[in-house]
Design a protein that fits this description.
Blueprint lengths: L1 E5 L9 H16 L4 E5 L14 E3 L11 H13 L3 E4 L12 E4 L16 H12 L5 E4 L2 H11 L6 E3 L21 E5 L8 H12 L5 E5 L15 E5 L6 H7 L2 E4 L8 H8 L4 E3 L4 H4 L4 E2 L2 H14 L1 H15 L4 H18 L3
Parallel strand pairs: 1-2, 1-4, 2-3, 4-5, 5-6, 6-7, 8-9, 8-11, 9-10, 11-12, 12-13
């Protein structure tokens, strides 16, 4: 099989979309060495590091007409590649259904609260049309809860929507800290944006810090619609952190704290658990976290959980073990094999 994967998400420096696109394409190429996988985009991007020989860069627009990428360019590039199926990992597939297509619908946040996404108007308008008109042959969601939401909101046929869980890369694992003498810290990793509920995290941490000498480390790309965090004692805002530094950050934290209002999956939670971190999170990630995290709602419950973690080593160690056990249930190989089955199903159903 020859698969084209739309790779514009790889132009983003960090976040769930580039992680999903890069790790999935690598895992597909490694699991299916007799197949060919082409990453294509109308923008410059880099191949994922360590790409096998059967994961290649395809072409982009060749003229002015093809710069209308989703209407003409992507269709023509698929024709040039003789692609059997196209996968749109970022809420879209080609507007003209000339080939079987698979659309990844990571969550329904663009349609839940406009304040969560300042620049999602195109997704809000385009994706429902592609779904409701049946332009996408098959749809992938990251968990069963999102699958049910999508079927209900966009009136999709249940047999065309498949939940395929994501995973953390294998290099996320417990590592010893190389920096000595650092104060204990709680950790948040993720995009700094309104949906992540960071004001509640800051409020809870400040309350705990009255009694416990513990820092808060915030790592991630700040989106334009999120105000810059003002400096204060104990708050360390790192900005974007290179991937190779994340396992040490996760491993060394008292707890990874993720109070998001809503998540499609919650990849940082799984990354933290795979590094053996104790996790405090909202119920938005319960389908992924299972019984491993401490679940909370609101700043009050969050502060109480953080206080317990800061004062009870036995609790932290027990949750670390639970995290590792739960994370072991996920892998990108499993994700790739399930996704490949969706590609095969799309080929069978195309034209139905």
């Amino acid at each position: 099989m020859r698969v084209a994967i739309e790779a514009t998400a790889l132009t983003i420096s960090s976040g769930g979309l580039p992680r999903y696109t890069g790790e999935l394409s690598l895992a597909l190429a490694r699991c299916f060495p007799d197949d060919e996988f082409y990453l294509i985009s109308d923008q410059p991007f880099g191949l994922p590091e360590g790409a096998p020989v059967n994961l290649r860069r395809g072409g982009g627009p060749r003229n002015a007409v093809e710069r209308r990428w989703w209407l003409w360019g992507i269709v023509r590039e698929m024709h040039r590649l003789h692609a059997d199926v196209i996968h749109g990992p970022d809420f879209a597939v080609p507007y003209i259904p000339r080939r079987p297509s698979v659309l990844s619908l990571h969550d329904l946040s663009p349609w839940m609260d406009e304040k969560w996404h300042h620049a999602a108007d195109r997704v809000r308008r385009r994706t429902p049309v592609l779904l409701e008109l049946g332009v996408a042959t098959m749809v992938i969601t990251p968990r069963e809860g999102v699958r049910r939401q999508a079927i209900e909101r966009f009136r999709l046929r249940p047999d065309r929507v498949v939940a395929v869980p994501y995973a953390a890369p294998s290099w996320f694992r417990p590592v010893p800290s190389r920096e000595k003498g650092l104060a204990p810290y709680f950790l948040y990793v993720g995009t700094l944006e309104p949906r992540k509920n960071l004001p509640a995290l800051l409020e809870a941490w400040r309350e705990v810090r009255h009694d416990c000498e513990v820092d808060l480390v915030v790592a991630g790309r700040r989106r334009a619609d999120f105000e810059e965090l003002a400096p204060e004692p104990g708050l360390r805002v790192l900005g974007e952190v290179p991937d190779q530094q994340l396992p040490e950050l996760y491993s060394g934290a008292l707890a990874f704290v993720f109070p998001s209002f809503y998540e499609g999956f919650g990849l940082p939670v799984l990354e933290a658990m795979q590094c053996g971190a104790c996790v405090i999170a909202s119920h938005a990630v319960q389908e992924v976290g299972g019984d491993a995290p401490l679940y909370v709602e609101g700043a009050g419950e969050l502060a109480e959980a953080m206080r317990q973690v800061a004062t009870r080593e036995d609790l932290v160690q027990a949750r670390r073990a639970d995290s590792l056990a739960r994370a072991g249930e996920f892998s990108w190989e499993r994700t790739a094999r399930m996704t490949y089955q969706v590609y095969q199903e799309a080929r069978k159903r195309f034209g139905d």
